[in-house]
Amino acid sequence: MAKFWRKLDKEGILAEPLVRYLWENQLTASEDDDDDIKDFIELMKAFGLLFEKNASEEDGRLFVVPSRMKTKPNNRLEIRKDDEQTVSIYVTPKDFLPDAVYDVLVVRFVSLSQDRGRRDDPKLFQNKAEIIFDDKHYVRLGRIYIDNKQSLKLEISRMKERDAYGVDKPTCKPHPGVCTEVLKVLKQNLDEVYPSKKVVGYELNILCSVCVNPEKPHFQELEYCLKNEYIHCYKTGEHIAMSTANVQNLFKADCSVVPVQSTPLITCDKTGQQMAMETDNAHGQCAKGTRDFQVMLTQVSKWYDKHELTNMLKLLYKDKVSIAGDLLRSTTTLDLFKLLYRNGSLQPTDLKIIIDTIVVTNTRGIVVQKVSDILCKAFHETNVTSFSIHRQKLIKLGRVLLPHEVKMLGGVYDLPKEQYKDQWTLILNLEMRREINENRMSPFIQVLKDIGLNHVATELDHEEECM
Ligand SMILES: [Zn+2]
């Protein structure tokens, strides 16, 4: 165990055996402690206390604990004008910045990067972190001081790009879709840390583009710039109104569903700079395919939204999305599709999960008729492989539950009203509370029978027999 303690102390890396050792007493009381330890770890991830690193063969799963990371001396992000490939956001607290905010954001951005299939080891320190965001972008987060107040700077940068022949492409600003997404993630997480903006709050700022003086930095509120046509500044000694068009272009809400990626890219930082290079010389081949894919996703998701079935899809995708918070926060079907896209479950070249979704939710005749023919072409195989039998049963369960039965069950389990606003939300919450547990369904089935919902119980009974 000493070796694991040293690893935690020196490298900020927590090995699974040490987690088990620390929780030993709490876990022996439980019947299925393996599930419990997974839940503990998920909880710690949700609170931004740790994130998963690539597992090692001898020590099992490994986690990085940001609060244990080392400080890199004389290496801070600076307040300065952005270069051609960077967009910066400054987080300035109204009163104070809780220490944990930095760690929480680091964990969040690393998980996003991992969801997108990035397996590079991020460069993490107590004062600065550099994380690859997607194939062409990386973010840097750092603790800085503004007016002697601890603040944060977030830089979104576009990597230098090189084509397949090794020729550098002209540098350009990050994709507006990426900036918008990073901003959204930033706000979501800050809003969780600052639940009441009135008492203790924060501002998101950018450096004033009128006076541009990093010595005596003057900031403009980002939100204001995005909503108004002009910003004003008097710092140069005269009143100047400047158009906000440039700022708005950086964050222009993106119309594409997923970042368009025309050719696969490799990334490399051995030159000292983050760089993306195309792996294929055949340009533009799949641009149209990607567009069709996006149109199809938008059509399908609109259909599910319109029929108020987004919560059903949340229940269906529960095992596919690693962070429960992401799932619960999604408000549209398109949000859910983006999560699937990010973790690789959904690709322009692999629509199996959409096909399986349509089959499991029994919406084939209705959805497919209306969408472009790429789905129809992919519809040759109807054997569901994307979802477990258990998950499919839960969808069936939701389809037979009537509104008054949903109310009754919500009451039996003493849930707050918002946790059973429909059958899908009810089932999802019962799962989160482990009342519905794949490995132990009989107590739940018994409850259904006890309150006279035998027809509902039958939907699940069959599964018990199979096991
Ligand atoms: Zn100014």
Strand and helix layout:
Elements: H1 2-11, E1 13-15, H2 16-22, H3 24-28, H4 33-46, E2 51-56, E3 60-64, E4 86-93, H5 100-115, E5 123-124, E6 128-132, E7 137-146, E8 149-158, E9 160-162, H6 176-193, E10 202-207, E11 219-221, H7 222-227, E12 230-233, E13 240-243, H8 245-250, E14 265-268, E15 275-278, H9 287-306, H10 310-316, H11 324-329, H12 333-342, H13 352-360, H14 364-370, H15 373-378, H16 389-400, H17 403-412, H18 423-432, H19 442-450, H20 454-466
Parallel strand pairs: 9-15
Antiparallel strand pairs: 1-3, 2-3, 4-8, 4-10, 5-6, 6-7, 7-8, 10-11, 12-13, 14-15
Please give a structural write-up.
- With 467 residues, this protein is α+β, with helices and mostly antiparallel strands.
- The protein has three domains: 2-66, Arc Repressor Mutant, subunit A, CATH 1.10.10; 86-250, TATA-Binding Protein; 288-466, no CATH class.
- Helices cover 43% and strands 16% of the residues.
- The chain is built from 20 helices and 15 strands.
- It has a seven-stranded antiparallel sheet.
- Helix 16 runs antiparallel to helix 20.
- The protein is globular.
- The protein starts with a helix and ends with a helix.
- Bound molecules: zinc ion (ZN).
- Zinc ion (ZN) is lined by residues 208, 210-211, 218, 233, 235.
